[in-house]
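Hi Q.,

Before the meeting this afternoon, I wanted you to have the fe (ii) ion prediction in hand. No need to reply - just skim if you have a minute. The sequence and ligand are here:
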Amino acid sequence: MNAVAKMPKTAKERGKVAPAKLAHVVLRTPPERVGLVLDWYKKVLEAEAMFETEGFGFVSYDTEHHRVAVLGFPGIKEHVDGHAGMHHMAFTYENLGDLMHTYNRIKDEHDIRPEFCINHGPTTSMYYFDPDKNQVELQVDNIPEEKFEEYFANGEFTSNPIGIKFDPEELSARLAAGESEESLLQRPDGIPPDLNEFPAN
Ligand SMILES: [Fe+2]
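Predicted structure with the ligand bound:
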């Protein structure tokens, strides 16, 4: 298995016209659950409603007019595990302090807990399920952008491209005790979990 030795150039650097940004995610749910699902994203992402009406709404947490929208479709079927399609959406926090703050806030205030926590190497990632079992990753980058190439060349990722699981309570406590983010973001040695340990959705 080989990792790329160099970060590829951006589409723009290659002279191509590509999207300026990834804009939003739109989810569908039964009409009676729109409020519940929107509420979950408001709580988890510190988002606020930009527009909300019977059976439809969208929320944002920054200057984008909508980041997550939820549409109610009458007669829509319930989520079924194991179908092709999107596995998860991911949101990146500025630093580990913000990620751990969010972990503790949504656990303490809303009893929302991650299903699976793993240090992939490039990211420290916590996977949650929304009320419809869409999987949402909250993460922080472990490697500063200018060190990506160095990191992918050092063999750590190639030797284990899955990661090492972590206990968020322990990570949160170590951060609160004053351990540096830089050392806490380093992936510890260990055995990667089996792929089927990842929560199914
Ligand atoms: Fe991801």
